[in-house]
Amino acid sequence: MNYIKGLDSRYWNGILPPDYEDFKFAGIKISQGTSHAGIDYTMPRKQWKLCPEQNLNRLPFHFWKGSRTQDPKQHGIAQAEFFYETVMSLNQGMGELPPAIDCEDTWAYKGLRSLVDIYECCKRTKELWNKPPIIYTASWWWNQYITPYDDYDEGKYRGIYSYKLWEADPPPDTPEPGDWTKDDLAIIQVELDATYPGFNASIDIDWAIKEWYDEQITPPNGEKSIVDISYDSSKVEIILIEK
Predict the structure, then answer these.
(1) Which is more confidently placed, 172 or 166?
(2) Cα–Cα distance between 215 and 219 in angstroms, integer?
(3) Which of 54, 57, 48 is nearest to 28 (CA)?
(4) Phi/psi class of residue 102: alpha, beta or left (left: φ > 0; alpha: ψ in -120 to 50)?
(5) Do 168 and 204 form a contact (C-beta atoms < 8 A)?
(6) Which residues are registered as beta bridge partners of 45?
(7) What pLDDT shows up at residue 41?
(8) Band of the pLDDT at 43, cuts 50, 70, 90?
(9) Minimum mean pLDDT among 114-128, 141-155, 160-174: which range?
(10) 53 or 176: whose pLDDT is higher?
């Protein structure tokens, strides 16, 4: 199988050292939950702006947060819209690769509440981007929080498995969560916290399946989302923490 090499890192400054031109894409955390746009949003903003200059295609991702009080359907939709609003507020395009929903919140409820929330978040993200998102998760999380409950309501929400998987269990521990198989992989995370000369921070190394990558990529000046929503940019909280 052929792969395309990429990276992701919360604290990377967005500058690719010349010796590592084999990187073709970067995963960039854009938002989290419904209340803020990143734990430290200084670097992600730089990444989003600088990646095109480094000839890196951008894959935006949202860190999904469960809610113990809000209606899970509405909460999932709200997260998707906040994700979209935050990308739009950067005024730098939608990214060249499909969006991703990062599912590893250990404070979430196990069971139907989280399943419905993620299902609705992915569904709304697909509508907003006009392309299906991928789901970033690992077996240690998914098999605890989702798999035992995915037959609730007569399997109504098992459509969650129609989305491609960004496998977050680096080798050699790479079992697929739930019903996903290797035929459904989009990206495999192969190394965590790697240190490379010339990078200002540790990075994670990702391999995208070339067939999926070639089908999904949208050139920087190509067609973007055909769905739009109105939003108030003043409500998109950007947290800046200068080092």
Answers:
(1) 166
(2) 11
(3) 48
(4) beta
(5) no
(6) none
(7) 66
(8) confident
(9) 160-174
(10) 53
In the structure encoding, which two tokens stand for residue 44, read together? 């992600």
Question: What one-letter code names the amino acid at 91?
Answer: N
pLDDT of amino acid 19: 84
| Superfamily (CATH) of domain 3-235 | Glycosidases (3.20.20.80)
Q: What is the pLDDT of residues 174-207, one digit of tens each?
A: 767 777 777 789 999 999 999 999 999 999 999 9
Please report, for the chain, the start and end positions of each structural domain, with discontinuous segments joined by +.
Answer: 3-235
Residue 171 has what pLDDT?
Answer: 76
Q: How many CB atoms lie within 10 A of CB 86?
A: 24
| Phi, psi angle pair for 58, to nearest 5° | -100, 135
Q: Residue 214 class from Cβ within 10 Å (0-12 exposed, 13-18 middle, 19+ buried)?
A: exposed
Which DSSP string corresponds to 7-55?
EE-SS--SPPPGGGTT--EEEEEEEETTTBS-SS-HHHHHHHHHGGGGT
Cα gap 29→119, rounded to integer Å: 20
CA neighbor of 74 nearest in space, from 16, 124, 27: 124
Residues forming beta bridges with residue 167, ordered by sequence position = 137, 188
Residue carrying the six token digits 């809000």:
70
Give the position of tokens 């789901």: 135
pLDDT over 70 at 108, yes or no: yes
pLDDT tier, 170 (very low <50, low <70, confident <90, very high otherwise): confident
| DSSP codes of every residue in 120-145 | HHHHHHHHHHTS--EEEE-HHHHHHH
- What secondary structure does DSSP assign to 189-226, as a single string? EEEEEE--TT-SS-EEEEEEEHHHHHHH---TTS---S
